[in-house]
């Protein structure tokens, strides 16, 4: 693009960001949008992930009195996820699933800036989410650090994923020279990598690693010498990972649409929502292994308070066959895996 005058630049900023399809007119005043859906998804995932992390940290700090590397990793993934939600909220305040020809260039440029931030924050959050998931698998299934095939596979995936996401973050942040050309489509000079192709390739790699990480604990769980009820209970703690995998696949599909369609603002915001789901469900899966311990603490506390109200004294601990089904499954799992060296 050749240099343009300030007046021409101002006129371009007010022009539609894309040519509408035949028979369609641009609606720059009040275009159709899905702002309510965007707000609901952001608040829903933000509240659930914050609650899940609070429960995990309470269990670690108050009940177990010890933080581990996996907890710090989850905390960092959640912090970058919240920053991502803020970027998505700001993007949603401009164009939540709005067709590109219904946007002025100045709004589209702002939208691209928030997409730019969101993609970088996604890479940071996913790096720590997958690190925490793999550390959870190592803690639960190789508690004595046996050099099993699972142990070696987890370490290989940790280093491979970390390298991949660091490279992804760098490419996202510095894909253009100057950097501002990543979002300002009216800059007449500079050069950019094809970030749409990068996103598509990264999405395919990311989906593959999601499926592998989900499968690893399931194979181990169903190979343990445990009854079906306990296997189902423990497997259920990781089953939310299926939703993260589904979100990752849908994000990959919409990345293809971003690549081939001229309506990029619409399909890119879909990608933002699916990435949001992948991160949110991933964080919750990472928090869930300590959930049985927290539930047991709550029930013991409630039971003890009820007993004190009647008998006026003494600590009371729940035990025996009256325990809620599944509340000690994680402790049983740790013992079972420690004995199972297959």
Automatic annotation (TrEMBL):
Residues 55-295 form the Rhodopsin domain. It is a multi-pass membrane protein. One of its GO terms (cellular component) is membrane. Keywords: Membrane, Transmembrane, Transmembrane helix. It is found in: Membrane. InterPro entries: Rhodopsin_dom_fungi, SAT4-like. It comes from the Eukaryota. It holds the Pfam family Fung_rhodopsin. The keyword Transmembrane helix applies. The chain crosses the membrane at residues 36-57, 69-91, 111-135, 156-174, 197-216, 237-260, 266-291. Belongs to the SAT4 family. This is Rhodopsin domain-containing protein. It comes from Aspergillus ibericus CBS 121593.
């Amino acid at each position: 693009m050749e240099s343009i005058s300030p007046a021409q630049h101002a006129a371009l900023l007010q022009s539609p960001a894309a040519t509408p399809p035949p028979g369609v007119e641009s609606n720059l005043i009040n275009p159709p949008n899905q702002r309510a859906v965007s707000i609901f998804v952001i608040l829903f995932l933000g509240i659930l992930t914050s609650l899940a992390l609070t429960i995990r940290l309470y269990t670690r700090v108050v009940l177990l009195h010890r933080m581990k590397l996996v907890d710090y990793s989850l905390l960092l993934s959640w912090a970058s996820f919240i920053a991502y939600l803020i970027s998505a909220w700001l993007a949603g305040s401009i164009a939540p699933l709005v067709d590109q020809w219904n946007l002025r260039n100045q709004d589209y440029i702002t939208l691209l800036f928030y997409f730019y931030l969101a993609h970088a924050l996604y890479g940071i959050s996913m790096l720590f989410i997958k690190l925490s998931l793999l550390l959870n698998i190592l803690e639960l299934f190789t508690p004595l650090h046996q050099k099993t095939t699972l142990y070696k596979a987890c370490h290989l995936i940790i280093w491979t994923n970390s390298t991949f996401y660091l490279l992804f973050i760098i490419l996202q942040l510095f894909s253009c020279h100057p950097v501002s050309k990543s979002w300002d489509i009216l800059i007449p000079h500079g050069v950019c990598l094809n970030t749409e192709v990068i996103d598509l390739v990264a999405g395919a790699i990311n989906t593959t690693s999601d499926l592998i990480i989900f499968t690893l604990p399931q194979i181990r769980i169903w190979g343990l010498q445990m009854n079906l009820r306990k296997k189902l209970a423990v497997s259920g703690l990781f089953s939310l990972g299926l939703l993260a995998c589904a979100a990752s696949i849908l994000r990959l599909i919409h990345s293809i649409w971003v690549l081939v369609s001229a309506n990029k603002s619409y399909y890119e915001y879909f990608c933002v929502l699916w990435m949001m789901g992948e991160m949110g469900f991933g964080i919750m899966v990472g928090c869930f292994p300590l959930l049985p311990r927290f539930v047991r603490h709550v029930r013991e506390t409630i039971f003890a308070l009820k007993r004190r109200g009647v008998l006026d004294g003494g600590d009371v601990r729940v035990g025996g066959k009256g325990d809620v089904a599944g509340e000690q499954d994680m402790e049983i799992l740790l013992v079972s895996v420690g004995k199972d060296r297959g």
